[in-house]
Design brief:
- By secondary structure, the chain is an alpha+beta fold.
- 27% of the residues lie in helices and 22% in strands.
- The strands form 4 sheets. It has a 7-stranded antiparallel sheet with strand order 1-2-3-6-9-10-11, with helices on both faces. Strands 4-5 form a two-stranded antiparallel sheet.
- A hairpin with a 4-residue loop joins strand 7 and strand 8.
């Protein structure tokens, strides 16, 4: 009995020590958007590594803030070819196929900048995506991340394709490779809250829940071969990557509880299937209305 008590006390102080280390460490956006030892390029609002063979980014990363999702910048309806990428795909390569232009960085994350909204419609920011995924769980994931941007001060997102077949399916006359899956890793920080979570979503109309697709970041690393958030000190990298603290991502997080005291009714930040921003008013901390996953019932 005494030994069990010692273990519990030891675990308690270990958690306190971990929280102390987290709270005293300063996170800088530029350190966490690029996987370790990866060459990259930058456009307004995101970093990326482009694969000239597949004509799809190996990965693309961005930060997202409360201002980004609450802005009023108008969506573009036209995509443009990146003038600096010689083998950048064109819109017509997607015509006549069962795949749509799936945005890696969504337009909903660029509502506060004209230039960033323009770059979201750059063809290097898209990959062939099954339409049900694009309008379904991919959109739901983007809405969840938008909610986290409202709840947490710092949100860092890295996304990319996963190719499992030796000879991937292609579109555009064999020029653009179709990913078998997509990965997402997210790092958030706000006060005592520090957490990372990963997702792998099949590029099909699979109805598996988002929860079933979630996993620790180191599991995504094992599949993709990338080392994410490597510039975190080792003790923090291991702390946030090896497991998922579900409390960080729900209404039990410190950030959620603190900000819930000051929340005011405002327009939902989520994106509808049509691509337009939701019009519903909400009092949820994440600024997602009841139909887009709010934990608080709208009045």
């Amino acid at each position: 009995m005494l030994d069990m008590l010692k273990i519990k006390i030891g675990n308690y102080f270990l958690k306190l020590w971990a929280f102390f280390l987290i709270s005293t460490f300063d996170v800088h956006a530029q350190n966490y958007l690029v996987p370790k030892n990866q060459a990259y390029e930058t456009r307004s609002g995101f970093h990326f590594s482009y694969n000239q063979g597949s004509k799809v980014c190996n990965w693309l990363s961005y930060t997202i803030t409360s201002d980004d999702v609450k802005g009023t910048e108008v969506y573009s309806k036209t995509y443009h070819k990146d003038s600096a990428i010689k083998v950048c795909p064109t819109e017509d390569m997607y015509e006549g196929y069962a795949y749509v232009k799936g945005q890696l960085k969504p337009s909903s994350a660029s509502r506060n900048s004209t230039q960033e909204m323009f770059e979201v419609y750059n063809m290097i920011n898209v990959a062939p995506m099954e339409i049900n995924l694009s309008k379904g769980y991919w959109r739901i994931m983007n809405n969840m991340i938008s909610g986290w941007a409202v709840t947490f001060d710092s949100v860092f997102v890295i996304k990319g394709p996963i190719f499992e077949k030796k000879k991937p399916e292609t579109i555009g006359g064999g020029k653009v490779s179709v990913p078998d899956k997509f990965f997402i890793v997210v790092l958030v920080k706000n006060g005592l809250d520090l957490g990372a979570i990963g997702f792998i979503l099949p590029n099909n109309n699979d109805s598996s829940s988002v929860q079933k697709c979630s996993m620790p970041v180191d599991s995504v690393e094992a599949i993709t071969g990338y080392d994410f958030f490597s510039e975190l000190p080792d003790y923090l990298e291991y702390f946030v990557e090896e497991s998922i603290d579900l409390n960080v991502w729900k209404d039990k997080s410190t950030s959620y509880m603190l900000k819930s005291k000051y929340v005011k009714q405002s327009r939902c930040v989520a994106t509808e299937k049509s691509g337009k921003r939701c019009e519903v008013k909400t009092e949820c901390v994440t600024q997602n209305c009841w139909k887009h996953g709010c934990d608080i019932k709208s009045k």
